[in-house]
Amino acid sequence: MADAVDRRPNRGYGRWTPFWFLAPAVFTLLAIGIYPTIFAAVTSFRQYNITRPRDGFPFVGLENYFTVLSDDTFWATLGLTGRFFLTVIPIQVALGIGIALLLHTPGLGVLRALARVTLVVPLATTYAVVGLIGRLIFNRDFGVANQALDFIGIGGLDWLGSPAGAFAAIAMMDIWQWTPFCALIFLAGLSMVPTEIEEAARLETRSKFMMLRHVQLPYLLPGLTAMLILRSADVLKLFDMVFVMTRGGPGAATDLVSVYIQRVGFRVFDLGVASAQAILLLVLTILLARLYIRLLYREIE
Amino acid sequence: MTKPTSRLLHGLGLTVVVAFSLFPFYWMVTSSLKDQTDLLASPPVWTFAPTLEHYRAIFADQKVVNAVINSLIVATSTTILAVMLGAPAAYALARFDFRGKQDLWFWFISNRMISPIVLALPIYLLAMQLGLLDTHLVLILIYLTFNLPIVVWICTDQFRSIPPELEQAARLEGANQWIIFSKIYVPLGVPGIAVSAIFSFIFSWNELLYALVLTRRTVQTAPVVATSFMSGYELPWGKIMATGTVIVLPVTVFALLVSKHMIRGLTMGATK
User: Does A299 contact B272 at a Cβ distance shorter than 8 Å?
Assistant: First the structure.
């Protein structure tokens, strides 16, 4: 600290000033974030089933963790979460880039502005309500999705009643909600390409693909990185829409990890095991956050 | 490709984007205006005589009205708190040098990434012991865990763009740090503060998991009530879609009005 003062003699503020500005936010977040996390960590070492209070809450060591790690359902829900990520992300990236390029192309002012503004609608729609809309659209009897299928000559599908249909339905609603986010991030990236470079390149090639690959892509990569990491954290916590639309079913077809932990915690009320699951999920999230930090640091430097 | 053809394709593409963004929303709103027969028509009908019966039904239902009021109380309070706590922190992060600043900034942001289910379990147990289940307070506090990081993130960026010369000039005139923050940074940082407040409000308004777990009867929020219609054999689709519209419409109109700023807010960090 002392040599910092020597190098910058006119800092003009006391050593504790930043602390006073930061303290309220830091202590609030610590109190409502860290304390419960420690509480969860402690609970994860106990047998804690509140439907059986007579058992008490004895300390059981790592037993809950062994239960979770040998629980095939837990691994299956994690696997399904990964599969969901790998299904929706490539589509969101591809559609996002496509939409961003469309919006970036000059001309058609009013329609273009309209398209840009309407992208905000999916983002502002409550996740739970997205699930409700999904249940209406993908209804077997009167859903508009089946009407569309009829139109192209494919018979009615029991979307939410069949494993593949339900998975496809939640994927499509997620794609609807998050493609605009990707499009906006890519649009911001495209608008950072210096105009001179873009115009010079346009004289060299008429190919849109060459343009994207060699001129625009470098400007899209930072946004892509941030998006990938943010969305992977989002998918790990994805709950509202799936809970409303399918509750994890039929069978375990849409049983994502957050939906499963919620069920163990608040339907079965085995809070010890659920806490162990939550702590493992937290570890996974922190690993992702570290990855995020590392990639972001590299960009800043 | 000739000019007119590419223009046509461009227009077609943009039209598809508009239709894609609006369709599920459009379908919800129109469904909420259909009577039961039209709603359950197979195949679905696109033209119908609109009726407000479902809206009358839900506004006559005290449960829905209360839920909207609860949502308003919780979202407004948590937004105000998040801004009051987050903006000063953002100022410190934007304009002071101290050890571990970068780590602290990332710690704030990483709170945004934690799954609600991780905190929902212990908060449930704590709230139960403290008698705070089913209160506004517990939701307001827990919502800070994802709103405070957003405010810090957006405001830090905003405050950085304010010329430091203003601060130096004020200091020469003898202004203390708090005056500088409240008289220079807050007024000039209004766009960033407003965008972060909007996000914070929308996130709290939309939250379901914590609300589901931490509320029972008196403090149910709007998403919880909308979801609660989904149990039972015969689903009241009209009421469900009307409630959905009531929840989503104000936020969406609001978001559309400020979409220019929102888009700027969204791209932050991603384009660094």
Answer: yes
